[in-house]
Specification:
The chain is about 40% helix and about 30% strand. It has about 120 residues and is an alpha+beta fold.
Length: about 120
């Protein structure tokens, strides 16, 4: 799933983070953008702090960070999926994107779990 979507010349989803809902520990994230854009850098660091509060937040929501960016997130099964998006990125697209991220992450974790179980069975035999 690409986070490099463009509308005109601007990126729409700036970064994506996956974290444990209980304590905000980041499990996975898109590579951090190298930029001199101080607003983005502030929003990126704020998103990490925001993730630490997820245990007390609704399961899904959009939160305005500033005039230019929004946090969109979905929490399910103890995991929070957060996208930092520019204001002109449509909210339904952000949630559709997060649904895809969740499905990919859960699928990868399920495959990993099955592989580990099979490996343990092979070792015992």
């Amino acid at each position: 799933v690409s986070t490099q979507s463009t509308w005109g010349q601007r990126k729409m989803i700036r970064t994506t983070l996956i974290a444990r809902t209980s304590d905000g520990t980041i499990l996975c994230e898109t590579p951090q953008e190298v930029t001199a854009d101080r607003t983005y850098v502030q929003a990126y660091h704020q998103s990490k702090q925001f993730l630490k509060t997820m245990a007390t937040q609704p399961e899904s929501c959009s939160v305005k960070f500033n005039e230019n960016m929004f946090f969109h997130y979905v929490s399910a099964d103890g995991i929070t999926y957060l996208a930092l998006c520019e204001k002109n990125y449509p909210q339904p697209y952000a949630f559709a994107f997060l649904k895809e991220v969740k499905e990919a992450f859960v699928g990868a974790e399920l495959k990993k779990s099955i592989w580990q179980s099979v490996s343990r069975l092979q070792i015992k035999n």
